Amino acid sequence: MGRSFIRNGWGFGEGVARVFKKGRRAAPCILFFDSIDALAPRFGADQSTTDVYRRILSQLLREIDNLRDVKGVILLAATDHPERIEPALLRSGRFDYILPFAKPGVAIARRLFISVAACAAFAQY
User: In Å, what is the CA distance from 121 to each residue of 22, 114, 116, 117, 118?
Assistant: First the structure.
């Protein structure tokens, strides 16, 4: 999502502000950011963390902080690389819970696949 904000020609953080504005208008809703590490990378850990990403992160942190007074908007984020997330994003009060999940083993992955495939097949009828 981080790179798409830049690629779409939105201002530095304007895309983030748009997402949160839509979320506040659509409440009750869930705002879900997949691969949050791409939107809020840890500074200093990667040479690609430019001023653009700093501005996007700044806007993201402001928007998250402003959600405290908004009723009916739930913020969820996911990442495969928690070590790449800027620590300021994980500061107290921004996300209430951090739930780590281990990668499933082969047996569990197979059961999940069968389960999802069965639901998908059932949904066709």
Answer: 33, 10, 9, 6, 5
Q: What angle do CA 80, 13, 29 make, to 5 degrees?
A: 65
Residue 3 main-chain phi, psi, to 5 deg: -70, -30
Tens digit of each residue's pLDDT (9 = 90 or more) over 50-76: 777 888 889 999 999 999 888 899 999
In angstroms, the CA 25 to CA 64 distance is 15
Which numeric CATH code is attached to 2-100?
Answer: 3.40.50.300
- Greatest CA separation found in the chain? 52
SS (HEC) of 80-125? CCHHHECHHHHCCCCCCCCCCCCCCCHHHHHHHHHHHHHHHHHHCC
pLDDT recorded at residue 77: 93
Is the peptide bond preceding residue 100 cis, with omega within 30 degrees of 0? no
- Does the global pTM surpass 0.85? no
What is the rounded (10 degree) CA torsion for 43, 47, 53, 55?
A: 70
